[in-house]
Write a structure and sequence with these properties.
- The complex is a heterodimer of chains A (272) and B (357).
- The mean pLDDT of chain A is 84.
- Chain A has a domain of 149 residues: Diaminopimelate Epimerase, Chain A, domain 1.
- By secondary structure, chain A is of the alpha/beta class.
- Chain A is elongated.
- In chain A, a hairpin with a 5-residue loop joins strand 6 and strand 7.
- In chain A, strands 1-2-3-4-7-6 form a 6-stranded mixed beta sheet, sandwiched between helices.
- Chain B is of the alpha+beta class and 357 residues long.
- Chain B folds into 2 domains: 107 residues, no CATH class; 205 residues, no CATH class.
- Helices cover 24% and strands 37% of the residues of chain B.
- Chain B has 6 helices and 16 strands.
- In chain B, strands 1, 7, 8, 9, 10, 11, 12, 13, 14, 15 and 16 form an 11-stranded mixed beta sheet that branches. In chain B, strands 2-3-4 form a 3-stranded antiparallel beta sheet.
- In chain B, a hairpin with a 6-residue loop joins strand 5 and strand 6.
- Chain B is flat, with a radius of gyration of 28 Å.
- Classes of the chains: A alpha/beta (272), B alpha+beta (357).
- Strand 5 of chain A pairs antiparallel with strand 11 of chain B, so a sheet runs across the interface.
Chain lengths: 272, 357
């Protein structure tokens, strides 16, 4: 009887472990089971790992939105998006009833990345916003600067959440401001000098009031203008055409899909 | 020959008062209509032969060439000597300040047809000078503070007045541009036109400075004069003011009037061509006809001041009060403002770039 119970416990454990791969429906746990950084691919040193966890925890607690980073060696049978969604759901990530959160997944086997957003995270990280965010982060990841990339990811997430809470989420037509390139300093000074020359030029002109008259319009006899023959002859026409710039479709908002748990997620994925 | 106008009431020397537009005796305050003076003037002319040969060239005492253009007269009131330039027709005696008109100066040259009497007095000229210096940030402060006018002269400046009609025949090349677009292309249609304008236009009383003493640009800058105030010339108007006679002839002056007529004709006809995107004159033919010239004296206040060894001349239209005259530039202040505005606008442009980009 005891042995039977032990066997059934073992079976349950095996099923629990295998289920995600098999696609069986699983329970979403109440509590978060794993830390906010899971480095199964071993991309970070211990020190980096510790400081990054500290940072992710601090921002997540403060913003009440889980910011998660996970690295794995292989995705198994799943697509990057499925894997990221399930990893988020079945490990109990997410704040509050809506499980507010965002997860960045790296899989080293095929160099896949995926972002999965849930709850309020879907609102904060719009499609266009994710594109911008991952554009920045992938620059570092492609170079192999994983720690720098994840650190930047954490900072940008913080910024995105602040923006969404204070005003409007970053989206098409409302993207984060790039810091102005330093070449604008000489350009500004040059344009400023031109404006200044125009202003001081008009001040200088006030000192000069002596000049010859251009014409004699003050001495025109009233009503003396008599127009004789006036003809407007049409000669010819030239038509030129220029291709119009194609308008880029700029959709806004976040697109969502439903994961194996039945929960709605936003997200994006790609290779790095 | 020197002419003073004596007050028929008290015998004092009288001058033209611009504020009441009459002759007024400064001693007994009696006022006289110009018409009265005209009669008086004619009377005086009849009485004239009593004293001839007032002109006396002080030969020998002057260096050769210095006497040229310089004349000496004896003042009728105090006997003092009045020195005047050959073209001076009216002035004041430096000793007793009585206004005099030098009649002899009008001999041998044309009598002016018209005169616009002074409307604005010396006090206003000084006040307008002060106003002229205001609101000019690049004017050296010292120049404004010292502000000493060395002399203020009311001068009747000789002008040639030209009337003319202009016949114009102008051909323009004009274009009309329309644009429209469909899904893939933006189309620009440029239609070319040949526009022809023919017609005539009249000008009257275009003034051209007839005195070489006066800078032409200074005299054109205080234009326009309004001919409505002009009256038939009487020497009595000159009393109390300086007056020049012309030393640039009508023939020499006509070219300048023609230049201005041509420009004005081109401008006026250009305005009749409308509804086009671009208009360029291709062929312009302007013929002037019915040209007539009159000789007139116009009132001008001339103010002089010296600053840092340079003379600055200002002119005010004695009829309209238009005040002109170039002023010196404060180079230090200019550089200061240039730097300040460069800094401010650079910061503004950089900030805008940061917001927009």
């Amino acid at each position: 009887m005891k042995a039977k119970l032990q066997l059934s416990m073992l079976l349950l454990l095996i099923i629990t472990i295998l289920l995600p791969g098999l696609g069986f429906a699983r329970e979403i746990p109440e509590e978060r089971l794993l830390p906010r950084l899971v480095d199964d691919a071993g991309l970070l040193t211990r020190d980096q790992e510790m400081s990054l966890v500290e940072k992710l925890d601090e921002i997540s607690e403060r913003q009440k939105l889980d910011i998660v980073v996970a690295t794995v060696d292989s995705l198994g049978q799943s697509t990057p998006t499925e894997y990221a969604d399930d990893f988020f759901d079945y490990n109990g990530y997410g704040f509050g009833d809506n499980a507010d959160g965002i997860l960045l997944l790296l899989s080293m086997e095929e160099r896949d990345w995926a972002v999965s957003t849930t709850g309020y995270g879907i609102t904060v990280f719009t499609d266009a916003g994710q594109e911008y965010l991952m554009g920045k982060v992938l620059e570092e990841l492609r170079e192999g600067n994983y720690y720098k990339g994840f650190d930047l990811y954490a900072d940008l997430c913080d910024d995105f959440i602040n923006q969404a809470k204070d005003k409007k989420p970053y989206d098409n037509g409302n993207m984060p401001k790039e810091p102005l390139s330093p070449k604008w300093i000489p350009i500004s000074i040059f344009l400023g000098a031109i404006v200044s020359f125009i202003i001081t030029g008009s001040m200088k002109r006030k000192l000069k009031s002596v000049s010859m008259q251009r014409a004699a319009s003050s001495y025109l006899k009233d009503d003396s203008l008599k127009l004789g023959a006036s003809r407007d002859l049409f000669l010819y026409t030239v038509v030129s055409k220029r291709e119009r710039p194609k308008e880029s479709s700029s959709s806004t908002g976040s697109s969502t899909h439903t994961s194996s748990s039945g929960r709605s997620h936003g997200g994006s994925s790609g290779k790095f | 020959m020197l002419q003073e106008y004596k007050c028929p009431a008290c015998g004092g020397a009288i001058g033209f008062d611009s504020s009441i537009q009459k002759m007024k005796c400064p001693y007994c305050d009696t006022e006289f209509e110009m018409e009265t003076l005209k009669a008086f003037d004619e009377q005086l002319k009849k009485e004239r032969p009593e004293e001839m040969n007032w002109e006396s060239k002080a030969g020998g005492q002057w260096e050769e060439g210095e006497t040229e253009g310089l004349l000496v007269y004896g003042c009728k009131s105090c006997g003092g000597e009045i020195l005047a330039d050959a073209n001076t027709a009216a002035t004041s005696c430096p000793y007793c300040d009585n206004p005099v008109v030098i009649m002899g100066q009008f001999k041998g040259s044309l009598k002016p047809d018209y005169v616009i009497p002074f409307k604005l007095n010396k006090g206003l000229a000084k006040a307008f000078f002060k106003r002229h210096l205001m609101g000019k940030k690049l004017l050296p402060k010292v120049f404004k503070d010292q502000n000493h006018i060395e002399e203020v002269k009311g001068i009747y400046v000789p002008f040639w007045l030209f009337d003319t009609d202009a016949d114009a025949n102008i051909r323009y090349r004009a274009t009309r541009v329309t644009t429209w677009s469909d899904k893939n292309y933006t189309y620009t249609k440029t239609s070319f036109y040949s526009v022809i304008r023919e017609g005539s236009i009249g000008f009257e009383k275009i003034p051209v400075d007839g005195s070489s003493n006066m800078d032409d640009d200074l005299m054109e800058s205080i234009e326009p004069f309004d001919f409505k105030d002009a009256v038939d010339f009487q020497t009595a108007y000159l009393a109390g003011y300086l007056a020049d006679k012309y030393d640039v002839t009508e023939e020499e002056s006509v070219e300048r009037a023609n230049q201005r007529v041509r420009q004005s004709t081109e401008d006026t006809f250009r305005f009749t061509v409308s509804g086009y995107s671009t208009v360029t004159p291709e062929n312009t033919s302007i013929r002037l006809r019915n040209g007539r010239a009159k000789y007139a004296l116009y009132p001008v206040w001339i103010l002089n001041t010296k600053w840092k060894g340079k003379t600055y001349t200002f002119a005010m239209n004695g009829q309209t009060g238009k005040f002109v005259g170039n002023l010196p530039l404060d180079k230090v202040a200019y550089l200061k403002y240039l730097t300040l505005y460069t800094a401010i606008s650079s910061i503004i442009i950089y900030t805008i770039a940061r917001i927009v980009l």
